[in-house]
Specification:
Layout lengths: L3 H4 L11 H26 L6 H47 L1 H14 L4 H23 L11 H25 L5 H23 L4 H26 L4
């Protein structure tokens, strides 16, 4: 009788495999919804605001915010990628200069994780024979394929997610009647933040309710602050 457990490979998907792009996407969507909604609410709250001014301010906030998110995320993650590349280059040089010392260093890491001396050395020998740099990158430097820095991916995810998050409050402002912009944009943004916060928390294995409330609370505070500023400053002297 065939042992199906040995014939079928066992595969698992972990949340850490998507943490890089998920973090950038959630941050971008939340920031897009909160910042553009806050700008729209702040301008709309001014007694002298016109629909054209609200639309112009919201559109400018969307474009500027998306570009800012992309640039900031790219620079940040590129710095991480540069650090990883420098560490890997140094590790490559050390492996070429002192392979035995690097093997002992790797074995020492495995001993601290609970392997006995002989087994730790055998594991180090086999892993270095297979992929010496990969073994040191993973077990000494903590660099893995799932968590490795990807600047362009992070930048595009941030800009795209920001635009998606910002599109809803902006579209709501366009569709809502002038006197109802504040209520419509506020309600649409709160609903968006509840969904985004809950989904992000769920995807990360945390409480969806707490994640939704945490994100929404800060979004409401931001909109309230800009609405107050728009009311006071927009009233003129």
């Amino acid at each position: 009788m065939t042992d199906r457990s040995s014939a079928v490979p066992h595969t698992e998907r972990h949340r850490t495999e998507r943490i890089g792009w998920l973090r950038a996407a959630v941050l971008g969507a939340n920031d897009g919804a909160v910042s553009v909604a806050s700008v729209v609410v702040g301008v709309a709250a001014a007694p002298t605001a016109t629909p054209g001014a609200v639309l112009l301010a919201g559109t400018a906030a969307l474009v500027a915010g998306a570009m800012s998110m992309a640039a900031g995320e790219y620079v940040s993650v590129q710095s991480q990628a540069d650090t990883e590349a420098a560490d890997l280059a140094r590790e490559t040089a050390e492996l070429a200069a002192d392979p035995e010392g690097e093997r002992e260093e790797l074995a020492a890491i495995y001993r601290t994780r609970g392997l006995d001396t002989d087994l730790a050395r055998r594991v180090a020998d086999q892993l270095m024979a297979h992929d010496a740099l990969g073994a040191h990158a993973r077990d000494e430097l903590g660099i893995t394929e799932a968590l490795r820095a990807r600047p362009l991916q992070a930048a595009l995810a941030s800009a795209g997610a920001f635009s998606v998050g910002a599109a809803l409050p902006l579209a709501t402002a366009v569709l809502a009647a002038g006197s109802h912009v504040l209520v419509a944009v506020g309600a649409a943004t709160v609903a968006t933040l509840l969904v985004l916060g809950g989904l992000a928390a769920y995807a990360g294995g945390a409480s969806a309710v707490r994640g939704a409330l945490r994100v929404t609370t800060w979004g409401v505070l931001a909109m309230a602050a800009t609405a107050l500023i728009g009311r006071l400053v927009g009233a003129g002297p």
